[in-house]
Design a protein that fits this description.
Strands 5, 6, 7, 8, 9 and 10 form a six-stranded antiparallel sheet that branches. Strands 1-4 form a two-stranded antiparallel ribbon. A two-stranded antiparallel ribbon has the order 2-3. By secondary structure, the protein is α+β, with helices and mostly antiparallel strands. The longest helix has 26 residues.
Length: about 500
């Protein structure tokens, strides 16, 4: 796992890269050239409108979005984004090569098709993810919510959303261009699956899409602070500095006054949603055990305290100086700080403590040096997904080589990939049940695509053999042209003699 590979400086020789800087003018100049070329050379108004849209989109990204994604060290280049880019380039290059070789598909038309599919594929992948985890992106500010939604540098894309968004955009483009739709989708699908295979390595770099804990020799362990670590922590599968917490029990209060609680596995531990936090177990010989933490203790406050603020006296901890809990904090600098209820503490006592009206509230202060816990080894489902997608890609290439019917590659692909994805979801633990079905969102979508794939395959096998791209893009008769030129040259030579 390596989420950030390096940073790109936001300025080059003092000239800004984003905003109204170098990238802005680069996109604008190349966009204007593409538009003018379409108008004067091809006289194609539709292509000109397409390039104008892409130019406007690029300008919007570098002018308004780019500056907000930059960090202190520069613009981050994430491992996830690098593999996503590689996947798009490799899949696009393969499609263009196969299209030209098999059907003489115009390169510029295929390039435009792939560009549209890639853009709307990314949009669809993001929309799918944000819709599923909307509570993690919504804030009190509309501007901050929008920035959270468009910030894809840390991942947050769903493959099915990408396939659905890209496919819809491709179908619309092919319909407008009056190009065979099913035959072109047959051409695209193997490269799409290859792109999924490469993109899953980006998931491995990002630490997302992980599997359930296992003890197989090929299991992988993600570092502290990773999504897998945080989920295991909140589910009580690993101890929090020697303390294993009981699963959260949600009983929201009307005033929402509790300071600490647990949320779902997709949200940080510290939150404002009230929930009872109880110590389920304490690791043997841990710092927590030596500090006197016992199973059954109910925690009312939790945090990290700087060494300089620790005291040997019995004075209460100054809550204002407590850093909220973060698993990536330096354990050598901070001490772990807990307030534990003494006996049965009522809510009004907690409110008085929070408002500093009663310093003698029945709580026990515990401060100890934290020993970070380690995440449990999990199934490398990202690698499983990558290898299985590559196998499906090879199968589709073989089918495409011998197929004599349009839709055969598409139908088989719509069966193989969803079945594979459904099975992989059985050992993935990063998604919750969808609408009480006991299945994840991806599994529900997989069932729908399999049904649609059966319909496509049935219609394909019942229809007469047909390949719509055969002869659709005429191939120039080079031998005839050469013969004409040769006869012309012979006639000239005879005249000269």
């Amino acid at each position: 796992m390596k989420q950030t590979l390096f940073f790109i400086p936001t300025q080059i020789y003092g000239v800004p890269l984003f905003g109204s800087g170098i990238l802005f003018w680069g996109v604008l100049i190349f966009g204007v050239i593409a538009i003018l070329r379409s108008l004067f050379n091809r006289k194609d108004f539709g292509d000109a409108c397409f390039y104008a849209f892409i130019t406007a989109l690029g300008i919007g990204v570098v002018r308004y979005i780019g500056p907000h994604l930059a960090e202190t060290d520069g613009f981050p280049i994430r491992g996830y984004g690098v593999f996503l880019t590689i996947a798009i380039l490799v899949a696009g290059s393969l499609t263009i090569w196969r299209g030209k070789k098999l059907w003489n598909y115009p390169v510029d038309q295929l390039f435009s098709l792939l560009f549209v599919a890639a853009i709307f594929g990314i949009i669809g992948a993001r929309v799918f993810y944000v819709t599923e985890y909307w509570q993690d992106y919504q804030t009190g500010s509309l501007r901050d919510t929008i920035l959270n939604v468009i910030n894809i540098t840390n991942g947050g894309l769903v493959v099915y959303g990408s396939i659905i968004g890209g496919t819809i955009a491709a179908i619309v483009y092919l319909f407008v261009k009056k190009t065979p739709i099913i035959a072109t989708l047959d051409l695209l699908l193997p490269a799409v699956v290859l792109g999924v295979s490469i993109g899953r390595l980006g998931c491995l770099m990002n630490g997302c899409c992980f599997g359930s804990p296992c003890e197989y020799p090929w299991a992988i362990t993600f570092p502290n602070g990773s999504p897998a670590y945080m989920q295991q922590l909140t589910e009580g599968k690993i101890p929090l500095y020697g303390i294993t917490l009981s699963p959260a029990e949600f009983s929201p209060s009307e005033d929402g006054s509790d300071l600490f609680s647990l949320k779902t596995k997709h949200v940080n531990l510290a939150s404002e949603i009230p929930s009872k936090v109880v110590v389920a177990d304490v690791s043997k010989d841990s710092e927590a055990e030596r500090a006197g933490i016992l199973p059954g203790d109910e925690i009312c406050e939790i945090g990290l305290l700087d060494k300089s603020e620790t005291k040997d006296s019995e004075e209460p901890i100054d809550v204002a100086k407590v850093a909220r809990y973060r698993v990536d904090s330096n354990a050598q600098v901070f001490y772990f700080f807990l307030n534990i209820w003494q006996e049965d503490a009522a809510r009004d006592v907690w409110l008085s403590l929070k408002n500093k009206e009663d310093s003698n509230a029945p709580v026990r202060n515990v401060v100890f040096h934290p020993t970070p816990s380690k995440a449990l080894p999990v199934h490398p489902t990202q690698i499983y997904s990558s290898v299985s997608a590559f196998i499906i890609f090879c199968i589709l290439l073989v089918v495409a080589k011998y197929a004599r019917r349009d839709g055969l590659v598409l139908g088989i692909g719509m069966l193989l990939y969803p079945i594979n994805r459904f099975c992989l979801e059985l050992i993935r633990t990063d998604e919750e049940s969808f609408c009480g079905t006991g299945l994840t969102v991806s599994q529900c979508v997989s069932i729908g695509i399999v049904i649609l794939g059966i319909l496509v395959l049935s219609k394909t096998l019942l229809a007469p053999p047909r390949r719509a791209l055969e002869g659709f893009f005429p191939i120039e008769d080079v031998s005839e042209d050469n013969s004409t030129n040769k006869n012309s040259d012979n006639a000239k030579n005879a005249t000269n003699r």
